[in-house]
Amino acid sequence: MPFEGVVCVLKPPGLTSSDVVVDVRRIFHEKRVGHTGTLDPAAAGVLPVCIGRATRLFDYLVDKKKRYLAEIRFGLATDTEDAYGAVTERTECDISQERLEAVLPSFIGEQLQVPPIYSSLNVNGVKMYKLARRGEVTSPVEERKRLITVSRMELVEKLEKNSFLIDIECSKGTYVRTLCRDIGKRLGAAAYMPFLLRTASGSFTLDSAHTIAELKALGEQGVLESVLVPMDEAAAHIPALRLNALSAKQKRLLVNGASIPLDACPLGEIHRLYLDDVFMGLCVRDGGGLHITVWLGPEEMQAK
Question: What pTM does this model have?
């Protein structure tokens, strides 16, 4: 049987998220592999990776909240807004813990963020980091600003003069290094992000994460199944709909993509569907009735 499910990878600094996908593809011998949210090469931490038919869940997993531990350091700014870029500004400052704690609450909530120039966002069909490397983009592009949400931002500890560790929970698409840049601006000082660790992505946390080396070892032992999160568990944030009294005809219609009249759930709301306690995939009820939108059930059932 092919592998399918979600594995939580502990990405190390230096690897791109695409590098991790390539490694997972080789370890699990599965072509259908994709991650649920890019981590910058310099960052480390939780990277959920979908394997096999679980890649069909991408749109339902990628929007979940992310949580990070980030170091913010004042007195210096770089063009990449992290420790890997060229220095663009220096300021003399001595930021106190009290001053930092006073401004952090102002960054909580919905806000428009202007992404860094070294990002994978497109400008006229070209990724911005490529334009930045060619010197064609030298400052953040206001037209690329987008709405983000920060639900938590707390000071964890002061590491040394002008250097602090902060705990951040935010929406998909948030650039934490840009938050650090903007915090510095609010305090009248240059700032950048030397360190970033993603501690959670949705329900996936560091406690359940595995290094690439650990996955290789488990593959050699033939026990990779032990680290795969089943597809319905990976989508546990989606409410469940359990139907245990359908007729054989109704079941046949559902598993073959047809709709059935049913008032068991609200219109337009995605649910995990279980028929007689067997997970079938994701379903929705619309004007035509209840139907399966993402089939993840036993393949032999749909073939009948």
Answer: 0.88
Q: Return d(Cα 46, Cα 49) in angstroms, integer.
A: 10
φ, ψ (nearest 5 deg) of residue 178: -75, -35
pLDDT digits (tens, 9 = 90+) for 176-189: 999 999 999 999 99
Active site residue 40: yes
Sorted by where each starts, the structural domains of the chain and their CATH numbers stand as 5-64+203-233 (3.30.2350.10), 66-201 (3.30.2350.10), 238-303 (2.30.130.10)
List, in order, residues 6 or more apart from 213 with CB less than 8 Å away. Answer: none
User: Residue 168: CA atoms inside 13 Å, Cβ hemisphere, count?
Assistant: 30
Least Cα distance to 166 among 147, 152, 187, 151 occurs for 152
Q: For position 122, what pLDDT does the model report?
A: 67
* Residue 221 CB neighbours (<10 A): 9
Instruction: Inform me whether the pLDDT recorded for 3 exceeds 80.
Output: yes
Which residue in the block uniquely carries the two structure tokens 């979908």? 50
Q: Which of 173, 202, 206 is nearest to 65 (CA)?
A: 202
Catalytic residue among 23, 40, 82, 182: 40
In contact, 37 and 47? CB cutoff 8 Å: yes
**C-alpha–C-alpha distance, residues 257 and 80, integer Å:** 48
**Banded pLDDT at 62 (limits 50, 70, 90):** confident
Backbone φ/ψ region at 5: left (φ over 0), alpha (ψ -120 to 50), beta: left
- Please state, in angstroms and rounded to a whole number, the distance separating the CA atoms of residues 205 and 118: 27
* Tokens encoding 234: 């990976």
Q: Which amino acid is at 73?
A: R
Residues 260 and 252 sit within 8 Å (Cβ to Cβ): no
Output the CA angle 43-77-84, nearest 5 degrees.
35
Distance CA 198, CA 187 (A): 25
Largest CA distance in the chain: 75
